[in-house]
């Protein structure tokens, strides 16, 4: 095949940042592209995550119906037995820079794909936490897109960081945390210092610089388009502020729900969990009354201290509510093997609680027994809760969580924000607010948002239409996007 011909065959390479919360939505996007008629799709992930995907999900079977789809792997530079947990996050970033980046360049500049009878890559869709894949795409003269598994609002906060610096609003250390931030258009009336991501508040580090390079308007590392796992009706005012500053934005969320539409409404296990799922909790939920259970999960990387865990535990038990709590094996930072759970907690938990190491979260949230979700406010969890119509109690910790939880409580009004507190009395009170006192009010907004989310992923909805537009464009102009 002549070079021009080869280059006109679309071949999309998707490349997530090596963290579960990042792998999962990009793999959902890969499946959406395949289901929409793109044939040459490659999903490049670390050996570690690939192994987990094959061990704990049905990804291999699901993708086997797309003959031109390929999984490819790359090393993350860490030894097999490295915990890859949040306390070692620096190692993950170091591995990305020192090992993944050169290997990625080598792979893309080699004739590897031709040697395995694949056309050359025409478009790279990479995680917004990494800028080098976009640089590689520019050097190769092919299209590039950054994928954001976070909300548009968080991305807009990052985009405006220099404006905040110019306005003297950043950096801050001992500021009044309730002071409003005025230099983010669309958020002037509700975003406070305490709602900014913690990494934006102080001095900027390397990680932040890399991620911000992509959103800085003047930078030559701008991708041809940005794909966001959100939906128009949820973040319309913010998206309207953003669009003039971005070459092109495709909102395709909630991806997991769009996937279910493309599978003709069949409920599929789109959640590409990288842990072994404990299905027994569903049997436990089956025996509970409707809306009686608080589901508690802090996602895949947030950790807490023993003291914090005990505050949550007492708060939950003292609320008198039934609860299903995900406690990952690596959840406690200062793990002490000699620690004994106080006897009162053990007996009360036996009566009203259920603890698992990892749950089938989408299934749990959709279960009629679940009436509320105590969450770290990860974007994936928020979208899943919205689709299931379950109101939230947010305990934000890192990354986008602080901004997300402000939107949940004050903009969308589908939950409560417990930020910057962690004591048993507050937890008890807020769990009761979530499940009883404030439930009706929260449910009114939640039902509306849930309906809008469903509409966006249904035929004729905004995310559905945007996916069609994206795929048509990728097919018609593979490298000239
Ligand atoms: N999740 C799950 N089972 C659990 C806890 C979490 O399947 O017990 C999934 C959840 O459905 C979501 C993802 O893990 O898709 C967590 O993503 P999120 O963006 O909420 O948080 P992160 O893990 O990135 O902090």
UniProtKB/TrEMBL annotation:
InterPro entries documented for this protein: UDP_glucos_trans, UDP_glycos_trans_CS
Coiled-coil parts of chain: none
Keyword Repeat in record: no
Keywords: Glycosyltransferase, Transferase
GO molecular function terms listed in the Swiss-Prot or TrEMBL record: quercetin 3-O-glucosyltransferase activity; quercetin 7-O-glucosyltransferase activity
Enzyme Commission number, as recorded: 2.4.1.-
SUPFAM superfamilies assigned to the protein according to its UniProt record, in alphabetical order: UDP-Glycosyltransferase/glycogen phosphorylase
Family the UniProt entry places it in: Belongs to the UDP-glycosyltransferase family.
Stated name of the protein: Glycosyltransferase
Organism: Aquilegia coerulea (Rocky mountain columbine)
